[in-house]
Amino acid sequence: xxxxxxxxxxxxxxxxxxxxxxxxxxxxxxxxxxxxxxxxxxxxxxxxxxxxxxxxxxxxxxxxxxxxxxxxxxxxxxxxxxxxxxxxxxxxxxxxxxxxxxxxxxxxxxxxxxxxxxxxxxxxxxxxxxxxxxxxxxxxxxxxxxxxxxxxxxxxxxxxxxxxxxxxxxxxxxxxxxxxxxxxxxxxxxxxxxxxxxxxxxxxxxxxxxxxxxxxxxxxxxxxxxxxxxxxxxxxxxxxxxxxxxxxxxxxxxxxxxxxxxxxxxxxxxxxxxxxxxxxxxxxxxxxxxxxxxxxxxxxxxxxxxx
Length: 307
Ligand SMILES: Nc1ncnc2c1ncn2[C@@H]1O[C@H](COP(=O)(O)OP(=O)(O)OP(=O)(O)O)[C@@H](O)[C@H]1O
Known about the structure:
Rossmann fold; elongated; five-stranded antiparallel beta sheet; 32% helix; alpha/beta
């Protein structure tokens, strides 16, 4: 397993506040890692430590397999980040802003500006002053700027905050493209469960500075699919009919009264009709939809700050 970034027991305190508490996170190469947590849960502090803007009190950070130290410089060039609100010279065009940034970075290949502007969908409006940009356009320009050095890891703190639905959709597509077409690893923080759920391959849930969960979305989806639960009057007969006459094999006996059917293409009304047709009476029945939201809500113990 190749990890592009790892933290081991990372802790940062500000006076009496433990902003980040014993966090061990693992970001795999090429994935979109969603860091989910409500306000003041420690997301920004964690990200700032990853790029050496804040020094941890305890713990270690490994980037591209190398241990980060206060004097690390070279490996940080392989990372692009927007951790603060991206600032630009508003009177200058997007293109000029990018150009100035290239000079500042000592980066000579300006052709790359065009490529980056195209990737974030701003090529045609590169000559427009940034002051006339919408919030979403500024965010995209910020991402283009963070990508100018073609980073392998892109760290974005709450990039969709304040965007309208169209802007959110555009950024979501951009993130997916950066990950799938350009093989860039992304670490994205958000307090929007729905957003993280849609884009992330791995989700890290941070609460009160602690990483309380780190899990592949695929695993959560596998574990939380829907099922039909029914209590027939004669469970043996019901099992016989379900297995031999209806050909369903993905079921489980929960106890002596209850059966759960996990086959996803079974329509409840048709199942009941089929069972009744084979003389199996049903005493109770319900369809369970265990949503991802429910999973995370349980994890956060009903923390309603998530939307
Ligand atoms: N420079 C600082 N000095 C003192 N306390 C700080 C500092 N930076 C962060 N904190 C505190 O650390 C905790 C975590 O803050 P952090 O900004 O990392 O959380 P966050 O999840 O990014 O929240 P938000 O989305 O509101 O920025 C908060 O209680 C915050 O007040």
